[in-house]
Specification:
The chain has about 240 residues and is an all-alpha fold. The chain has a domain at about 85-240: Four Helix Bundle (Hemerythrin (Met), subunit A). It contains 8 helices and no strands. The two termini are about 10 Å apart.
Length: about 240
């Protein structure tokens, strides 16, 4: 339970920090100046999409927290037989980190209105994400051929459950990434910074979602690799 609460606190802290970066904590009533001289020439803020993503990440984070909680409770039973983690999971983890890094560089390119950087970053992120999903499928195949997905072993069922739900979230993110990539390639070369800047919000939302998926996967990866076993025993000792 302590581990779950810690995960939720970290998730809430990340969400609060991200919302503060969007300017939601600003106090416009304290602005100094004459109202008639306000500059309304710039683009209007679009907090709706950001708030929608924040709400979705909160729900998704709660779902993964419940899965981790169920995993902890189930692994303490006598019929639990731990799985040997395939080596390919290490490579797929690196690919997801590369995909997240590529999107972060894409955000920087969008802020500089560099169309080439946006296009290459989106393509790199998409290819790395697809390779990550391919690695997950290879891990499934390896464990299935070794007989670890038998009905008598709940560890195999939980492995399928957590990786499948994370993979479904990845597929949803790939749909948004695909739409953003199509928009980026629809912009002609030599377009004005204003036209390229219209992609900035979509790129930033994709990057935020990818960073979230990376954090969740790293937590799941540590759980599946049994790195958290000692921490679990410490928590159980504190509760008894």
């Amino acid at each position: 339970m302590i581990v779950i609460l810690t995960f939720m606190v970290v998730l809430a802290g990340f969400g609060g920090w991200w919302l503060l970066r969007q300017g939601l904590a600003s106090k416009p009533w304290l602005e100094v100046g004459i109202p008639g001289e306000a500059d309304w020439s710039g683009p209007a803020p679009r907090p709706t999409a950001r708030l929608g993503l924040a709400a979705f990440l909160t729900v998704a984070g709660s779902l993964f927290a419940l899965l981790v909680s169920a995993y902890f409770m189930r692994m303490g039973m006598a019929d639990w037989r731990a799985l040997p983690m395939p080596i390919v999971l290490w490579f797929s983890t690196g690919l997801l980190m590369l995909s997240s890094l590529a999107l972060q560089t894409t955000v920087s390119a969008a802020r500089r209105s560099e169309l080439d950087g946006i296009r290459s970053g989106l393509l790199a992120a998409g290819v790395s994400a697809l390779a990550f999903l391919a690695g997950q499928m290879l891990a499934w195949r390896e464990l299935a051929e070794a007989g670890y997905f038998a009905a008598s072993n709940p560890a195999g069922a939980f492995f399928c459950l957590v990786t499948a739900i994370h993979g479904l979230h990845m597929l949803g993110g790939l749909v948004a990434l695909y739409r953003t990539t199509v928009r980026a390639f629809a912009i002609p070369m030599g377009s004005t910074p204003q036209a390229i800047g219209a992609l900035r919000l979509s790129v930033e939302l994709c990057a935020t979602y990818w960073h979230f998926l990376l954090v969740v996967w790293l937590a799941l990866f540590a759980l599946l690799m049994r790195w958290a076993d000692e921490l679990i025993e410490i928590c159980r000792g504190l509760l008894t």
